[in-house]
Specification:
Shape: globular
Helix content: 40-55%
Oligomer: single chain
Radius of gyration: 28 Å
């Protein structure tokens, strides 16, 4: 494993639109000082079980321990020494964007001369190695107990594969000190970004008062207890004379989902599990690291439950393609949840040896554990030369995407190749990953020849998600079908609900209300995000029961959605649960008190509670932690403006633009501020800059169009809106604006074109229907 760069899109997905939708949160653990040893002090967890170390496990589990010692888990993080450092520290230099970094040894230690926090060249000592293959990063300690992941990594692949070289993880980015992604920046901080998944019993131990970390661990690497939980009770159980008294063997969690399970082949040659898998204990344990997610707790029991400590991402735009294929660095969890394998009861260790970290058999043999090779490992099925790359199951069903420059990772949605969707929707496909010289149409025709009866695959939500992302006609209906179809994967239903929230209607609210009854945590959380927009009476009726939900994530979201109304309006027997859930929410934010997102989330909470001074303090704290964080500046400026100080709000926005000169959202907010101050011409100019900087946001273009129209520049307004419509052909605001302005200048034919599109989007809208009818009467002849 290598440095996990959880981007800000995860840390703060919708803080300004839906403030309760959070994924981040101060461990109140032990303040153990830094140590030169690989072993940090043990930490006692609430159930009194203690971490005892992997060496204790080896006393009985010799085979498993030997397998583990050769795994990447065992080498996930190590002290930097001659045994662990793979890169060339022999005076070799690497140049990127004018910065020359020199790698050398001095006094038996490993050093890098490079640009530091002040932008000047200096020598920095390497404290730890991070990962082993196919790349290795190096951790450097800077003041405040911060370990930072250096941005130039060592390609540890063989030279024959292009490896044995230094390379930059963000080539061409021109990163300078002060930028969040510079190696000294907040987004390269090991304590927050990477530590949890590379060490065991990690306690971040950030002290907000001193702005320092005193991060501790029980093992520097990923040891036995990182997955199995603290082992002291298991050791005690092993020494008891009557072991039947503790059927769980002192373990939490106990991985028993595969005990006694066999797989057979049914009459349709499909693999069938001997008993259904009714829990996801093992998958959740793996997901704590092998998922795109935010973390808000580190208690072992909370971690084992996954949703009591983490918020996994959905199949969101930007993270995944509309058909659910991996796009950004998303790891495996949400991909696997889409698959037919997950639905059939497969767990991670059915395919992977959890101790070696390798697959259980090489090549197609790992799939042949369940899928009859006589049927599937044949040219009649794969239509490629036997033993060739194209004949490998994973090549077609688990194509790779390369991350961190050199790390190809397989998509675990285990899907049927769909080159037809490449043509229609622009999604990638496995066929053209190999046949780069051919078109998607060529691949699609080949598959039609092999399989005349189309086999669509399990991921049948692509078209619905594509319509939704375009806000195209029929999007709401298509999403509703996915969200209410019990045969769909839960992750697909949750992701459909999240998109359905963009189409508010009575039907959308009804679907969300029904989805609150789901057994799946992600489905319920997605439904809550819709219910949060309802009136107070509806929110109370639907969300109060969820204040006692089993999952902390659901309880927090439900409580956050209920904030903003008098607590007295809640049923008396629900107020204690509400208070507890809000306290959990606050603790979740404070878990990541070193991050600006946490303080923005707390700021918006306190704002909604009417605690304006507390809100302001939190938002100012967010800005002091990271002045480049746009959402923090926007939230603070909005709070100040709401308090009646428009001039100070303007100053906050202008200060933000110094560090983010191309931030369209800030330019837009500044433009509105200036318009409110009657400095209309200056404000319109900033709105124009915002529209140019952020062409992906149609609302900014719409507001610019309105501003131009209202200042007498009708022709320019129409031009701006038409240009925006070419990028966003189904945006309702732009269509309404164009129809209205064309009516003003009596171009009824043009207005009707836009009105007809609106009618497609909103067929039940009486207002749109009346507009179409009236326009048709204004145009002579058939129309």
């Amino acid at each position: 494993m290598a440095f996990m760069n959880f981007k800000r899109s995860l840390s703060l997905p919708v803080v300004l639109q839906i403030a309760f939708c959070v994924v981040i949160s101060v461990a109140a653990g032990l303040w153990a000082g830094p140590s030169n040893s690989e072993e940090r002090p043990q930490t006692t967890v609430p159930d009194q079980a203690e971490f005892v170390g992997s060496a204790a496990c080896a006393q009985c589990h010799t085979s498993e321990h030997e397998q583990w010692t050769g795994s990447q888990h065992a080498h996930a993080m190590q002290e930097a020494n001659e045994r662990t450092v793979l890169g060339k520290f022999d005076g070799t230099t690497f140049t990127e964007d004018g910065v020359v970094s020199t790698f050398f040894k001095k006094d038996g230690a490993y050093w890098i001369n490079t640009d530091g926090p002040d932008g000047k060249l200096a020598d920095f000592k390497v404290r730890y190695t991070f990962g082993v293959a196919p790349l290795q990063q190096y951790l450097i300690e800077i003041p405040g107990g911060r370990l930072q992941a250096f941005g130039v990594a060592w390609d540890s692949r063989p030279q024959s594969e292009g490896g044995q070289r230094w390379y930059h993880l963000y080539p061409g980015s021109k990163l300078k000190a002060g930028h969040p992604l510079h190696w000294t920046g907040i987004d390269q901080n090991w304590n927050y970004q990477c530590a949890w998944c590379h060490s065991t019993n990690l306690k971040k131990n950030f002290n907000p008062a001193t702005n320092e970390f005193k991060t501790s661990w029980s093992e520097i690497h990923v040891g036995c207890e990182a997955c199995h939980g603290p082992g002291s009770k298991h050791l005690a159980w092993a020494k008891t004379s009557d072991q039947s008294k503790d059927p769980d063997m002192g373990l939490y969690p106990e991985f028993n989902e595969r005990h006694g399970v066999t797989w057979s082949v049914n009459a349709d040659s499909k693999p069938v599990r001997s008993t259904p898998r009714t829990t996801s204990i093992e998958i959740k344990a793996c997901a704590s690291c092998h998922a795109r997610r935010g973390q808000y707790d580190d208690d072992p029991h909370a971690v084992a439950g996954l949703y009591d400590a983490f918020r996994p991402s959905l199949l969101d735009t930007g993270l995944y393609y509309v058909d659910g294929q991996q796009r950004d660095e998303v790891y495996n969890f949400a991909s696997f949840l889409q698959s037919k394998m997950y639905a059939a009861g497969v767990t991670c260790s059915d395919c992977h040896n959890p101790h070696t970290g390798k697959i259980r058999a090489e090549g197609n043999a790992v799939c042949a554990q369940c899928h009859t090779p006589e049927r599937y490992d044949t040219p009649e099925h794969h239509h490629h030369t036997p033993k060739s790359d194209g004949a490998q199951c994973a090549s077609c069903h688990m194509p790779t995407t390369t991350y961190m420059g050199v790390d190809p990772r397989r998509d675990h949605s285990i899907r049927i190749p769909r080159p037809d969707r490449t043509t229609l929707l622009g999604t990638p496909n496995a066929c053209n990953q190999c046949h780069k010289d051919k078109s998607a149409s060529w691949a699609s025709e080949a598959i039609k020849t092999w399989y005349p009866k189309p086999i669509p695959g399990a991921q049948d939500f692509a078209e619905a998600f594509s319509r939704a992302d375009l806000a195209a006609p029929g999007a709401q209906i298509a999403l509703s079908r996915i969200a209410t179809n019990a045969s769909e994967s839960a992750i697909a239903r949750a992701s459909a609900l999240a998109r359905l929230g963009r189409f508010p209607s009575r039907e959308t609210m009804a679907i969300a209300a029904q989805s609150l009854k789901s057994d799946d945590v992600l489905v319920k959380a997605a439904a809550i995000s819709i219910i949060a927009t309802a009136d107070a009476e509806t929110r109370v009726a639907l969300l109060v029961p969820l204040l006692n939900d089993k999952a902390r994530l659901v309880r927090m979201d439900a409580a956050r959605a209920l904030v903003g109304q008098p607590e007295a309006s809640l049923p008396a027997d629900a107020r204690q649960a509400f208070t507890a859930a809000i306290e959990d929410y606050v603790a979740a934010q404070n878990f990541n008190a070193e991050r600006p997102e946490s303080h923005v989330n707390l700021g918006t909470l306190y704002r909604d509670q009417g605690k304006m001074e507390d809100a302001k303090a939190q938002l100012e704290k967010a800005n002091s932690i990271d002045p480049t964080f746009v959402a923090g500046s926007l939230a603070l400026a909005d709070l100040v403006r709401a308090g009646g100080d428009e001039e100070k709000s303007e100053k906050i926005l202008r200060d933000a633009l110094v560090l983010n000169p191309d931030a369209g959202a800030v330019q837009y907010a500044l433009g509105l501020s200036l318009v409110r101050q009657k400095r209309t011409e200056e404000g319109v100019n900033w709105l124009r800059k915002a529209a140019e900087s952020t062409p992906q946001d149609p609302h900014i273009a719409y507001v610019l169009g309105v501003a131009l129209h209202d200042t007498g520049k009708q022709a320019e307004a129409i031009t701006v809106l038409k240009n925006a419509l070419s990028r966003h052909p189904y945006d309702r605001e732009i269509l309404i604006g164009l129809a209205s302005y064309e009516i003003e200048r009596k171009d009824y034919s043009s207005a009707l074109t836009y009105a007809n599109t609106l009618a497609e989007l909103e067929p039940d809208s009486q207002e749109v229907g009346n507009m179409v009818t009236w326009l048709r009467k204004q145009i002579p002849g058939p129309n």
